[in-house]
């Protein structure tokens, strides 16, 4: 007979096992902490102007609270971490990248318009012809700065402050002073000023020092022996423009380009991101300096991926066929040795090959020089650099094809080979007319997957050639061995302008190509989409 909690006088929701109850409380507490953490991230990103990240964590926190707060959604709690991870690390970066591709986001257009305006308004400039010569005078264990302006140099505001003396200043590194007040005096302090070597020894301290006169003018070090007023360079106007106080020119905010523009059309950096529509996409196909390298890299990417799959399949298939030969002894040893390259991390093998292909000291060139008297320029000749990439990638990829082919060959009925032997067929005939046709169809989806992997094989390019040798005349960092993915990386992170918008447009095109390959893979695998 079963005894329920109700018959014992216990509430129905209370478990008879304390461990379960404590676990439930711990999960609830953890859920509350996670929700509070996401809400904190929402506020933090919102205050920094990152509304997309703020919206992401708002959705994440709300869905977390709903799924783990309602009993009706208990079955969804197990799959929620996977969905949340996919949303944060896959869907959001994809949407964010596509969004950036429609903007001029770059290293010159990083900040918001408000922060750009504030940065301009914070700029100062040294007033010309208003410098004070200064000297250091000993005052006990401290020093004082004595400043003296030459006659006829100072403007009306500083005319009555021709001679100034600062408050005592410590030269000790553990007592840093950033701001000192100076007062008008009639004569310099008594005693001899400190020698020039003392000024040079404390130059860093002087450069970080700001002197404030009684009328509020700030003086900063303008030379090894002088201080000068630092005046605000820009002034904000009611219409949103800025006035350069040095020459009374006007800077107008251009919302189409995301820069403040002078009257002569000159753009001043930094700028702010603005929407540019399809400009990045059209630039890829209409700008000759970008279109030429892009198309060259585009076709090379397809050729590289296709030839890699073909070469690795050929090597793997031939070796797998040889390992199935009945007269071959020591198959286990050969199989282990042939699969060893697959066990070594790829980046280690790539770096080893990079040393072996070294044009001056590499083992490959030493062997070719001794045997044939040639020393190929593997890293400077475009054709040889591409050949080197294919050789290295074939070495890295053939063990995978070998394993696939070995598994598929073993599933072929032996009766077919016996019938072929009766008809007089040899090993070559069996391999080309029986083995290859039977394994090619189930192998096709895996070949497409291998093609997609090599289509984005960034590690090989980055570690072996870095995309070089470069394509001459390109306006963006582009190399003859670059793939689309490494080309995108170089535009985004190695270009002087760091054109994130253009790189995002190319990344979006790569995504569409990979989606097409994945769809084709599913169709060939006869998976219902």
């Amino acid at each position: 007979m079963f005894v329920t909690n109700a018959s014992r006088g216990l509430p129905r929701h209370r478990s008879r096992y304390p461990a379960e109850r404590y676990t439930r409380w711990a999960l609830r507490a953890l859920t509350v902490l996670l929700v509070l953490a996401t809400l904190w991230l929402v506020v933090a990103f919102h205050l920094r102007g990152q509304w997309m990240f703020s919206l992401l964590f708002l959705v994440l926190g709300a869905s977390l609270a709903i799924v783990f707060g309602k009993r009706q959604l208990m079955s969804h709690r197990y799959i929620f971490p996977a969905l949340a991870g996919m949303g944060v690390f896959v869907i959001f970066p994809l949407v964010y990248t596509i969004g950036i591709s429609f903007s001029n986001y770059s290293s010159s257009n990083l900040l918001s318009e408000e922060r750009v305006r504030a940065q301009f308004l914070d700029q100062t400039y040294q007033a010309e012809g208003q410098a004070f010569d200064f000297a250091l005078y000993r005052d006990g264990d401290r020093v004082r700065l004595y400043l003296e302006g030459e006659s006829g140099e100072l403007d009306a505001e500083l005319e009555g402050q021709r001679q100034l003396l600062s408050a005592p200043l410590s030269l000790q590194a553990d007592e840093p002073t950033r701001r000192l007040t100076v007062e008008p005096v009639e004569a310099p302090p008594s005693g001899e000023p400190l020698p020039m070597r003392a000024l040079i020894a404390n130059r860093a301290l002087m450069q970080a020092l700001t002197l404030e006169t009684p009328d509020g003018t700030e003086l900063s070090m303008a030379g090894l022996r002088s201080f000068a007023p630092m005046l605000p360079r820009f002034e904000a106007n009611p219409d949103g423009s800025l006035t350069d106080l040095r020459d009374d020119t006007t800077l107008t905010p251009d919302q189409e380009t995301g820069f403040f523009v002078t009257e002569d059309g000159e753009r001043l950096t930094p700028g702010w991101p603005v929407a540019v529509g399809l400009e990045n996409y059209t630039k890829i196909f209409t700008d000759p300096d970008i279109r030429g390298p892009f198309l060259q890299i585009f076709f090379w990417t397809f050729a590289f991926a296709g030839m890699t799959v073909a070469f690795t399949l050929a090597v793997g298939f031939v070796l797998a066929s040889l390992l199935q030969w009945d007269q071959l002894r020591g198959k286990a040893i050969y199989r282990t040795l042939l699969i060893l390259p697959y066990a070594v991390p790829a980046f280690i093998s790539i770096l080893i090959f990079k040393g072996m292909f070294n044009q001056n000291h590499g083992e490959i060139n030493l062997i070719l020089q001794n045997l044939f008297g040639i020393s190929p320029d593997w890293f400077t000749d475009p054709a040889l650099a591409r050949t080197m990439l294919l050789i290295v990638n074939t070495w890295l990829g053939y063990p995978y094809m070998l394993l696939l082919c070995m598994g598929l060959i073993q599933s072929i009925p032996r009766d077919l080979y016996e019938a072929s032997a009766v008809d007089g067929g040899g090993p070559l005939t069996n391999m080309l007319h029986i083995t290859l046709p039977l394994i090619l169809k189930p192998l096709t989806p895996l070949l497409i997957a291998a093609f997609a992997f090599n289509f984005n094989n960034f590690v090989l390019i980055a570690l072996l050639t870095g995309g070089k040798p470069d394509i001459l005349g390109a306006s963006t960092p582009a190399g003859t061995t670059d793939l689309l993915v490494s080309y995108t990386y170089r535009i985004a992170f190695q270009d002087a302008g760091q054109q994130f918008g253009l790189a995002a447009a190319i990344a979006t095109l790569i995504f569409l190509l990979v989606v097409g390959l994945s769809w084709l893979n599913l169709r060939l695998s006869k998976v219902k989409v």
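Confidence is low (pLDDT under 50) at residues 1-10. The CA atoms of residues 69 and 510 lie 40 Å apart.
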